[in-house]
Fold this protein.
Amino acid sequence: MSENLDAVIVGSGPNGLAAAVALAMNGHRVHVLEAQSTFGGGTRSAELVSPGYVNDLCSAVHPLGISSPFFSSLGLEEHGLEWLNPDIAYAHPLPDNDNGGAVACFRDLSRTVSTLGTDGGSYRKLFEPFAQKWEELLDDVLRPISFPRHPLLMARFGLLATRSLEGLARAHFSTPAARALVAGVGAHSMLPLSRSPSAAVTMMLGTAAHTRGWPIPRGGSQRIADALVARLRKLGGSLQPDSPVASLADLPPSRVVLFDLTPRQLLKICGDRLSPAYRSQLEDFRYGPGVFKIDWALSAPVPWKNPLCAGAGTVHVGGTLEDIARAEQQAWDGTPPEQPFVLFSQPSVFDPTRAPPGKHAAWGYCHVPNGSTFNMTSRIEAQIERYAPGFGTTILARATANTAQLELRNANLVGGDIGGGVADLERLIFRPALRRSPYAVLMTNDPRGFFICSSSTPPGAGVHGMCGYHAATAARKFLNK
């Protein structure tokens, strides 16, 4: 490792790697420190259940990964990243055979509209204007809060996105099927569906489904990290695994330091070197609900009642809008849901490298109170069984992880929160603290530049690397002084 480093990045999640690549592309000498033995943070894969079954440790499906303006500019396909894009982005099984037993979001907007009956026209009016201007929307949404470059588009988007999901669904749709379809996407926000801006996630991820899709990487999410690592090494950057950073004294000399960490880890590392006012704001940073996750090795495909679910990359299992809202409110209020909303991915249906021939790998989680260690296995599997009778008979093995176990795998998952902090309206605007530059870390008596580049900064959660890219832009200004 060079003794003349320009930048040290602490953490090799997608944002840390994005920051490292962005700096290296501008000729800066970059070194990445990673606490774990493998690089990738939330984009790692491993044989968690049984040999031959490839499971994703955290993220599995990547609508913002394929859409990311920065990732798209890097030529990651040259480094082995291959996107597999199901025609059905996500499906939603329904109780009581409503709408034929399921509803689905196809990549083809018109096909989705045709399945929604009387709500089809409303669905088109909601999503088509943003699907037609997806690149312009991303240009404004995936960056720090500032005056928009496309003000009319953003004004229209903001009127919808700043609502609660329940409010949006009831205002635009009259059928249980359409309301459930948007509710399943809105629940990715990890907010109660009665709170704003839970509709923002529906508008972003729903529009993404009709533009670039909800793809999975062939071979697992680790391939995203591997491609970024390969790109960084090609640019001359270096990386060091098994290198936890407990204090500033653990850092090699450099001109700037970027932390792909949440505020809690930043507080531990920097301690009283942070300015008192900034430290106080970080101490007030709030984390959201956690998740309980299961990975399965299966003897056969999931026996969904409805074939739409069998052909979807992602399945939202939770029933009606009202059912999902109840489960998400319980997790927010501190109670493990009796009938949880389950986010389910079945990658081996589209990627045979994930499991031995004739077998399948599946991944699922539900939201639980932050820090909960309640075992949700039976409740999650009962929910799936409701819509896929016989699912239990296909299970060969499973690996479960509660919030504490997830945090042990990745310290950024504080209390099992996979989003880097609560994504309510206040924390979307002032994330992680009230600062002109949300990425600058305010220190006392240190000539180096310090920056935070994790999903605790704008534009927030998702595997898109834009938090890291924007933090690197701020760091470059410091380096170029």
About this structure: The longest strand covers residues 290-298. The chain has a mean pLDDT of 96. Residues 29 and 391 are 51 Å apart (CA to CA).
